Fold this protein.
Amino acid sequence: MKINFETLQHMNHTHVLGPSEQEVYSLSFHSKRVEPKSAFFSIKGETYDGHFYMEEALESGASVVIGTEAEILKETSMKNPDKTFIVVEDIRSAMAAFSKHYYGRIDEQMKMIGVTGTNGKTTVAAYVRSLLTLLGLPTGSIGTTGIWSSYEKLPYKKSTPTTPESADLHHIFNDLYALEDRAAVMEVSSIALDQKRVEGIQFDVAIHTNFSEEHLEYHHTIEHYKACKMRLFQQASAQVINIDDDGMGQDLIEAHHESMLTYSINGHPEADLRADDIEVMEEGSFFRLSYQGSSYEVYVPVYGTYNVANVLSAIGTALHLDYSLEHIIKVLPHMEGPEGRFQVIQTPLNQKVILDYAHTPVALNRLVEEVKKLKYNRLIVMIAGIGIRDFNKMPKMAATIDGQADDVVVTVDHPGYHDPRIIVEQVKTGFRMPDATNIHTTLTREDGVRRSLELGKENDIILLTSGCINNAQIVRGEEIPHSDEDIIERYYPPVFDKV
């Protein structure tokens, strides 16, 4: 694509150095992924500065370099007169605006749904993707479990664990549209909102799940964390809000009362959508749905009371998109959930191994409450300290599970650059008796999964929790392939079946 940069006022650039026109075939913000005729965005972060990698990007064939450091760009421009260098005020805003332009504003041709909250984003995104596709609106999804079209998972190396950088996001929208998807639902993290990854996207619906303490290693204060979450709803035409949530629900209701639908599983009298008489069984959940003065008997193939709330948020989204409740209820029994969320594996020993990557104290507490409704002999729970997250949260995970299981395995997820021993010890400080004989420790997630399986006997439940991201473990900046399912399959004889 030939681009005249003098005419791109939406990038808010201050200088264009070198040729005003260039052919651009791809976008990149990582110097090692630059291809010939790329536009390279020199992002300046807390631990790295893309301006120091401009030379590498140019050597790999970048035709355009965009950054904020005017003197560095001017100096490099003099050495590379055939390349274009653009000075902008805000590199992330510029990347979001340019990416949207480069991919033909494809997001405006699709329905856009954003999901934010401390817990439940992945599950809600999967429910929305499935429900809208069942209703006849082919929908893709973007989030922790990867990139999905309306009918399959796509091979895609994401730039971040949850919400991709803006250049990748608009590329994904373009790919989904080419696959004939006409809507996209994405998990939108607080960090993504702060870093302007979704800037310029007008969401048709924004969904709120809940709010509790998380990501303070980045935000530092709970107030900043909440303020970032709130931004999503300001760039949405309609909102779906959890009225049961004390953390942020009322703030959103006050700000968006004219364009919202609220939902409740706690009998809130003012909720637009309410689930009562919830009955949870292993094969799914039944409840009575109330909406606009009428009630309906509903079945959904999901387990857990908290997941009924997630279903309500998906229903609210479909209602905002003008689907009838009768049509929605008709397809609900066919709705599918996400990978790694209350995924049950039946073993040859009549055990249930449950994968659920709950990685906050609130999510872990809700999960264990639901697991205890199942029939079992003993309960073994694996928790993990996440090296790339807030260290202050680690003891709270231990305190949440303390006394709730017969055996607890403490392990490590994504140690990053930290010593796994320090992470494990930090988690253990949350136990009342950290050296109790039923508390076991390992230094890798792979060993943690194996130890949990070794502890399991006939008719036990083995619950594997925490945040394994993108089928990999992040160790010293590298992504090491990892799959809980592969470890489980290798541990047991070939008689292996998912339910």
